[in-house]
Design brief:
alpha/beta, Glucose Oxidase, domain 1, eight-stranded mixed beta sheet, eight-stranded parallel beta sheet, 16 strands, globular, binds phosphoenolpyruvate, binds magnesium ion
């Protein structure tokens, strides 16, 4: 696409969540089409579930709009006020309005699926407004259509986003993107993205770092549709989105991008050298992987293996569940490509922001605390059995490890071991080759209760992986996907650090390996502290390995241990940050 030029520069502030600078062309994700919606008649006994599905889409829209209203309040002057009025009108359209009542009635009386009922109701309301020949009501007709699109999107959550029409160097700007959306990005076409909603520890942000795409969340506004096709800069380090940059701004960012690329090339030279501290302690650096197709980065950045494969991404953007054969083929290919380095496969961690349409609705009123991760796998053991069989079969080709997400009690571990016995038995009967000896079974420590019970869990675990993303979320009661409380999400909070320390010491007492695989593992700011607390294994987005390795190689572990001790005596997060940053500065 040829960029359109000739308007004033506009800057939107936000939170940089994936470093780097993208210079590309605006693609407004939410401004797409009125794509055809599915249309079918409901069986009588599914009507109630369909009405709940619609009610859930309305509730999600209400939440989205109230978040947008909160953001609009922060916008300066008339633009914030105007947006505020529009959002208030949207909110009223949802609140037990003719629209929502009408759709609900059509689902109940006509037994129509929610999308089709919504489309019919909107067409009728719009036709009615337009027949009145009044400019004010015509404008309301556009608002109703907008709300209709939002509700359709919410009904369709977890299904493929329309990214097919992207042209090269697209910068995707959206109100919100799910991890499933980002999993559809073609890295050959997408240069970066920015969203209004979403927190820095969300899986969407994690995907951005994993794909190496500069990204900003919590953006302070959205360019208008007239700005589609214009040049845009996403500064994923500084947290800025600049639409229609002036010639000077563009030249400045081109230079910064070139400097960054030069720095990266320099770091890349570290690929083959070991991650050893100045005082001679070797640290294992492994890769986190979301999309099996990204495995090339693992060797490219010199990872010692895969410390976390997030298998839920294999379940996204598809209508059916992956079979044992398909999962075995994916894992076997990874094991073969790793060529002797271990593959740690985490069983399905679906739930909250990670959706999988084929699982249907399972996550209850509070998805982060509900039926998710290992709880879902134990409620539906056929999911776990299929995954375990695939892991065991792939393990016949090279080293694999099994990792269980969101464990909270020993009973869960015992049940998984029991299910594994059954799977082994069946594989033997089928005469299918599988991993022998059986792979180690590890526990993710990512819930405060699990960290506090780490001694007991260690007795039944072959290794621990500390998931500091969720551990921070659950310890501080901060939704990691919510940009409104993102400023309070802080893994340096003394409570989080104490849980990390306690878990590490429990693992050392039980003589089992322990790693950190949350996002702080890939941020050199935290390296000295984590090593100082006793961690010797870190797993992160492949592209972060050179940075962390550089930090390890300039680090004196004795000094880091002493600094960690001082830090652990502190109660104030600000003081902890200062003590850590001072230490890092002196070292660098
Ligand atoms: C974590 O919670 O730190 C973790 C690694 O798992 P995820 O980010 O997939 O929840
Ligand atoms: Mg987690």
């Amino acid at each position: 696409m040829t960029p359109v030029t000739g308007q004033a520069e506009r800057i939107f502030d936000g939170l940089g969540v994936s470093p780097g600078i993208a210079i590309g062309i605006v693609h407004l994700h939410d401004q797409h089409d009125d794509a055809p919606v599915p249309h079918y008649r409901l069986a009588k006994d599914t009507v109630a579930a369909e009405r709940s599905r619609f009610a859930a889409a309305v509730a999600t829209a209400e939440q989205q709009i109230s978040k947008l209203q909160a953001k609009a309040k922060d916008l300066p002057g008339a633009s914030g006020e105007e947006l505020g009025y529009m959002l208030e009108a949207y909110r009223q359209m949802l609140d037990n309005s003719r629209l929502t009542r009408g759709v609900d009635k059509r689902i109940a009386d006509e037994r129509l699926n929610a999308e089709a009922a919504l489309q019919r109701e909107i067409t009728e309301i719009v036709a009615h407004f337009e027949s009145m020949g009044d400019a004010y009501l015509s404008a309301r007709a556009d608002d109703i259509k907008d709300i209709g699109r939002r509700l359709t999107r919410n009904l369709d959550r977890g299904n493929a986003g329309p990214f097919g029409q992207l042209s090269k160097n697209a910068v995707v700007l959206a109100e919100e993107l799910s991890p499933a959306d980002t999993a559809l990005f073609d890295p050959a076409l997408v240069a970066g993205f920015a969203t209004i909603l979403g927190g820095p520890a969300s899986h969407t942000a994690i995907m951005a770092r994993s794909l190496g795409l500069p990204a900003v969340v919590g953006m302070s506004g959205m360019p208008s549709s007239s700005q589609a096709g214009r040049v845009v800069i996403v500064d994923g380090s500084g947290g800025k989105v600049i639409v229609n940059p002036s010639a000077d701004t563009l030249a400045d960012y081109r230079k910064r991008r070139a400097d960054l690329l030069r720095q990266r090339r320099k770091l890349h030279l570290l690929r083959k050298v070991p991650a050893v501290t100045k005082d001679g302690v070797e640290i294992t650096l492994e890769a986190n992987l979301e999309l099996p197709s990204e495995v090339g980065g693992v060797s490219n950045y010199g990872a010692a293996g895969i410390g976390l494969l997030r298998t839920e991404f294999i379940f996204m953007n598809r209508a059916n569940l992956p079979s044992e054969e398909e999962q075995t083929a994916i894992l076997s290919e990874l094991v073969t490509k790793l060529d002797g380095r271990p593959l740690t496969v985490r069983t399905l961690d679906a739930g909250a922001d990670k959706t999988a349409p084929a699982l249907g609705r399972f996550d209850g009123p509070n998805p982060s605390l509900g039926l998710r991760a290992i709880r879902l796998s134990l409620k539906r053991p056929e999911l776990l059995e299929t995954q375990l069989a695939a892991i065991l079969r792939a393990g016949a080709l090279g080293p694999v490890r099994i990792l269980l997400p969101m464990v909270t009690n020993v009973g869960e571990l015992l049940t998984v071991r029991h299910i594994l016995d059954g799977v082994v038995h069946r594989l033997k009967r089928r005469k299918v080759p599988f991993a022998l000896p059986l792979p180690p079974i590890g526990t993710m420590i990512e819930v405060p209760g699990a960290a506090l019970a780490a001694d007991g869990l260690a007795q039944h675990s072959d290794f621990f992986a500390i998931g500091t993303n969720d551990l921070t979320q659950y310890t501080l009661a901060i939704d990691r996907t919510d940009e409104q409380v993102a400023h309070l999400y802080d893994s340096l909070h003394p409570a989080v650090l104490r849980l990390v320390q306690f878990t590490t010491e429990a693992a050392l007492r039980a003589r089992i390996p322990v790693s950190v695989c949350g996002e702080i593992a890939g941020d050199p700011r935290y390296t000295a502290l984590l090593l100082g607390l006793g961690i010797r294994e870190l797993s992160m987005a492949s592209s972060r390995i050179p940075l962390v390795k550089a930090r390890i190689r300039e680090l004196d572990l004795m000094a880091a241990t002493r600094r960690a001790r001082v830090i652990m005596d502190q109660s104030d997060t600000g003081r902890i940050a200062q003590l850590l940053d001072d230490f890092n500065e002196k070292m660098g």
